[in-house]
Amino acid sequence: MTNSIKEIAGADFILAIGTNTTESHPIIGLQVKKARRNGSTLVVVDPRRTEVAELADLHLQIKSGSDIALLNAMAHVIIEEKLWNKDFVNGRTENFEAFKETVKRYTPEFASEITGVPAETIREVARGYAKANNATILYTMGLTQHICGTHNVFAVANLAMLCGHIGKPNSGVNPLRGQNNVQGACDMGALPAVLTGYQPVTADEVRAKFAKAWQVDELPAKPGLTVGEIMEGAAEGRIKGMYIMGENPVLSDPDADHVIHALSNLDFLVVQDIFLTETAQLADVVLPAASFAEKDGTFTNTERRVQRVRKAINPVGEAKADWEIICAVSSAMGYAMKYASVSNIFDEIASLTPSYAGISYSRLEEGGIQWPCPSAEHTGTPYLHKDKFVRGLGKFNPVEYIPPAEQPDEEYPLVLTTGRRHFHYHTGTMTQRTGALEVYYGTEYLEINPVDASALGIAEDDMVLVKSRRGEVRVKARLTDVVPRGVVFTSFHFPDVAINKLTNAAVDPLAKIPELKVCAVKVEKAS
Amino acid sequence: MSDVRLTINGREVTAPKGSTVLEAATRAGIFIPTLCHDPELTSFGACRMCVVEIKGMRNLPASCVTEVADGMVVETDSPAVVEARKTILELLLANHPADCLTCGRNGDCRLQDYAYMYGVKSEPFGGEKHNYPVEDDNPFIIRDMNKCILCGKCVRACAEIQGKNIIDFAYRGFDAKVATAMDVPLSDSECVFCGNCVAVCPVGALQEKALRSAARTWEVKKVKTTCPYCGTGCSLELNVKDDRVVGVTSCQGDVNGRALCVKGRFGFGFIHHPDRLQKPLVKKNGTFVEASWEEAINLVAEKLQDIKEHHGSDALAVLSSARCTNEENYLMQKFTRVVLGTNNIDHCARL
Amino acid sequence: MSYVTLTINGIKVTVPRGTTVLDAAREAGVFIPTLCHDPDFPHFGACRLCVVEIPGMRNLPASCVTEAADGMEVYTESPAVVEARKTILELLLANHPQDCLTCEKNGDCRLQDYAFRYGVKEAGFQGERKNYPLDDSNPYIIRDANKCILCGRCVRTCNAIPERSVIDFGYRGFNTKIVTAMDTPLGESDCVYCGRCVTVCPVGALIWKSLAGKGRVWEFNKEEVTCTFCESGCLFEVVSKGGKNIAVVPKAPGTGRPLCLKGRLGLELKYLDDPPAPQLKKGDTFVEVSWSEALGLQEILPKLTGKNG
Ligand code: SF4
Ligand code: SF4
Ligand code: SF4
Ligand code: SF4
Ligand code: SF4
Ligand code: SF4
Ligand code: FES
To answer: What's the DSSP call for residue B339?
Structure first.
């Protein structure tokens, strides 16, 4: 996020795109509600009438995957009506002309065709956003801010720069992270092209610095494969061995059958987790890891705040903290890794990562710190891009609307979108085993519009088959107008509704984000 | 902002203009008991536990809603104040069940604290008692309205922190009660079970079901940590008894204050779930058999080494985790780059 | 020594012959609740809270007085056992004051622990309440016979020092009570205020006056110290709250050590910032005395300091 969570409450215009904030990020949702109570305007863009959409002044029930058309049309209106922030655009950005050229053809009427949102509504939202003092855009997509830009994110950033709604308190571009430490995993360089703090592996001086600190002669310079490419490589036999720590791609990744095939094709798979997940079941060796309650460490949240994780109990059984296991494997392979405690690991991170340089365990005792925090005296950074962007001038990246790779057709007439539920989390490995959450919210269902349902002869609680070109799942139907006609929705929290058997692994060429949100399906009553 | 000067218990203190007597006293380290007041919620001034004596004022004003003024002379523990507090406590206890024996909040209950502090005994057969059924049909929260002192904190927390209006005062007089619309159980309302009402309840009327039946308040050690679920990064306290996590309570978090969602507050049960992996497993002839750490680690090291030697570093790949700590992700990419010799490392966070 | 092997809740355990089932269970890490049992003065078997189920035995035997035997099978939480414990607790609570709200023992009381553990609320039976006056007749110990569960632990530990033997069971039936020689208040008896009885009382029937009203047990920190007045080396605890030492109380002395008032007063003087003035009984009343008198130093102190003590 460019801003802090608490700053959302201070925005007078909130544009929430594709985030059911109150359900998937309840505590951030509280800030949205607070802003509403303070009188700010909330516009929600989502094909479903979600809980947060119910709170909104305006709900744009847009066709899945048409966000860019909407955002470009907003920019079009803002430029046409001369509502854009000339000082900001002239002083802080570049490439405006190209952007202006691109959005020229996105008239509200044109966008209305694509998105299904009335042109007048697009105009109204564009004016509201541009005229606000502090406007913030919230969205979820699990992107890495600094390196994996995607077209959607470009479109959002273009809009924010156009109005100067960035680089100040309460105003900005705020992706909300799905998992607790997505931000940290990216910051730490668990990515194919960068080391910690987004330092590129391709830069010689960067590799030299790390090689020296790690006491090796050299480090690999060629960017590695992304998760989708890794699976592809495994399926094709180029990747022979894999080490998976605390992830369950069989359930979380698109096209589950393909993932299972890829992992089964490996010569050797080691999985380290707290449960015998669907992925772990495919492994040759499974290593029992400690849960968050059983170890020390830090997480970095979606607003870049580094916070302590503290050990409360001893690991269950013979489980060990992930960091201890990595050290053991590394040492067994001839590279000794020994740390007396996690705070020593953190010190090593700080010494190699400029944005973390000023953070230490003793400082974290006083409370979390938001990076960048370059020195021990620095108090952290609540919002980014204050006087300049990381790269200097902010660059407009014009993007075009591209229709989703898979459109509904005669055979697969419905659009399936997936998401999260309030009572559950991710692949359900944890929330299915709490003795409470799964008791209260025990079964998953498919949301379907009553009109579509009656056309298909489906009644509430009927067992239905959802089929895509890649697979099928059985699930109970729930008739609700939360979803518009033509759209069905479910979550991916429940292993027995392994919805990612259906989803499309086609990835965005830049960010390599699979199109989990949109795929074409047909639904029929199960016998 | 200008400061005002006043005297509390004979001590000269200063407080920002517009602050309450309660805030001024708290700042000066002077304790005033409260039941319905909460610094994060709007003031209510209903329980009158926080009364003080102020020279020149006829009655005893409630300090949580009385603004400081220049030259004010305040007594927080005068005989009249103590008498008033005792009376309030006696009235509350007269229709409060004498249930501390097994009450889940015994040891962390304001009513009990103040009864002890002011030496007010409960009268088991004193006043008329309510006889509401205890509501425990959901797996998260126990509601025992017999113990409710009608402080209204839960009502305000639900409205002001959670932005829901699930519960409100209902009925009148002796029958006054905090209830959902139509007085249905929480499980039949729109309640999202965030438990933020439970976190502010000063007594045992609202309790965390699992936690309060697993341990007495004085038996638990509290460890402040960060929620393992979503990317918001809420702070919470794990309650530990006998090396087991028995519950979660709120603490003051940088991001969330005391608010949590249902997952953070009630989703801790997976930690001790019987499905937890407790030993390394090695697959032999298609089935997993338990192995020692030494055997498992050596096998992993040997296999990875073997692939590296025969197929090259880029035949290896690592998926790190958005659920693990920074330190673990750091070591994992270090291991991948230094030991495996490849940049084939990613995590599933793009989803 | 010969050994026997038995199973407790399916766990095999081997113990020396003569060990009770209770001790064998503790050896196996299995918890059994007790009220009247005192490891220093065992084999009393009165409260029956420690009952267990042993197939082949007709009733539920009290584990604290039952000897472990080879091949014995013991179940410590079977439905029958739990039922029995609940009944015992209900009976105890039926004539127990509902006073935890302000009771000094709240938070460190066995009756309360077990009521919570077995989910027994008071008023299972609405029994007759006792209405004894509070015995507040001396500066050191408060006795509340209404809360007494007649476990007899105080009697046994007091009588372990023959020249003390101040208290015993008195009266019968519902009126059974722990009494001094003529059922006088403690202050009028031959009690020496060593506090042996207080250290073993499982409930709030005997409490330290020095701690009454000073705080709740969960607010206290305790640090163990050893008395050096005599060679017995009795163990005490310095009790602190909010970083301030507020009292010194003894730990249960068992059979080996006598425990005495002088030792406790000496440690109060040593560890407390403002120790309460010591009081000794002169004739029928307690009077404040100087520290040197309380500690029996009048004769030697002047010699040591060259002044009059
Ligand atoms: S709410 Fe408080 S006073 Fe009431 S029974 Fe529970 S602990 Fe005792
Ligand atoms: S649990 Fe949350 S939503 Fe439910 S009543 Fe309490 S505060 Fe309101
Ligand atoms: S339930 Fe608790 S917080 Fe709510 S009014 Fe009653 S006592 Fe107050
Ligand atoms: S408590 Fe809820 S909102 Fe907060 S971090 Fe945990 S899952 Fe996210
Ligand atoms: S006073 Fe205490 S120790 Fe003595 S019999 Fe009664 S309960 Fe037992
Ligand atoms: S003796 Fe125990 S059960 Fe009785 S009132 Fe005191 S704390 Fe409660
Ligand atoms: S402890 Fe065994 S009978 Fe009392």
So the answer is: I
Q: Helices H, strands E: what count in chain A? A: 19, 19
Nearest to C116 among B93, B102, B116 (CB): B102
Q: DSSP string covering B33-80, please?
A: --SS--TTS-----S-TTB-EETT-SS--BTTTPBP-TT-EEESS-HH
Which atom in ligand 7 lies closest to the alpha carbon of residue C51? 2
C307 C-beta neighbours (distance < 10 Å), count: 8
Alpha helices of chain C — where are they, by DSSP H? 21-27, 79-94, 110-117, 153-159, 196-200, 261-271, 291-294, 301-305
Q: What angle do CA A159, A163, A166 make, to 5 degrees?
A: 80
Minimum-distance CB partner of C119 among B102, B106, B115: B102
Quote the tokens at residue B306: 């073997």
| Residue C291 CA from chain centroid, whole number | 28
Q: Which of C98, C101, C115 sits opposite B112 (nearest CB)?
A: C101
Render each residue's pLDDT in chain A as its tens digit; 527 residues: 787 787 877 788 888 887 777 777 888 888 888 888 888 888 888 888 887 888 888 888 888 777 888 888 888 888 888 888 788 878 787 887 887 788 788 888 888 888 888 888 888 888 888 888 888 888 875 333 333 336 777 888 888 888 888 887 787 888 777 778 888 888 898 888 899 988 888 889 988 998 999 998 888 988 988 888 888 888 888 999 999 998 888 877 667 778 888 888 899 999 999 999 888 989 999 999 999 999 999 999 888 899 999 999 999 999 999 999 999 999 999 998 999 899 999 999 999 988 888 899 999 888 888 888 888 888 878 777 776 666 667 777 877 777 776 777 778 888 888 776 656 656 666 777 777 777 776 677 888 888 888 888 888 888 888 888 777 788 888 888 888 888 888 876 656 656 666 665 555 444 444 455 667 888 888 77
Architecture of domain A5-176: 3-Layer(aba) Sandwich (3.40)
Q: Hey, what are B137's tokens?
A: 């049909």
Q: Do A305 and B271 touch (CB under 8 A)?
A: no
* ipTM for the whole complex: 0.88
What is the CATH class of B220-276? mainly beta
Domain boundaries, chain A: 5-176, 182-370, 414-525
At the topology level, CATH places domain B3-77 in: Ubiquitin-like (UB roll) (3.10.20)
Chain A's closest residue to B258, CA to CA, is: A27
DSSP assignment letter at A140: -
Q: In chain A, positions 359-378, which contact chain B (CB-CB < 8 Å)?
A: 367-368
Q: How far is B124 from chain A (nearest CA, A)?
A: 35
Q: Are C99 and C147 in contact (CB under 8 A)?
A: yes
Q: How far apart are CA C231 and CA C135, in angstroms?
A: 33
Ligand 4 proximity of B234 Cβ (cutoff 6 Å): yes
Where do the domains of chain B lie?
3-77, 220-276, 281-347
Look up the CATH number of domain A414-525.
2.40.40.20
Neighbouring C-beta atoms of residue C71, cutoff 10 Å: 9
Residues 199-228, chain B: which have Cβ within 8 Å of C? Answer: 216-218
Q: Three-state DSSP class for B135?
A: strand
So what CATH class is A182-370?
Answer: alpha beta
Residue C217 in contact with residue C108, Cβ under 8 Å?
A: yes
The residues that bridge with C249 in the sheet, in sequence order, are: C237
Q: Which of A177, A134, A139 is nearest to A155 (CA)?
A: A139
Half-sphere exposure of B33 (CA within 13 A, CB side): 23
Give Cα separations from A382 to A172, A304, B233, B254 (angstroms).
12, 8, 15, 12
In A275-352, which ranges are continuous DSSP H helix? 322-332, 342-352
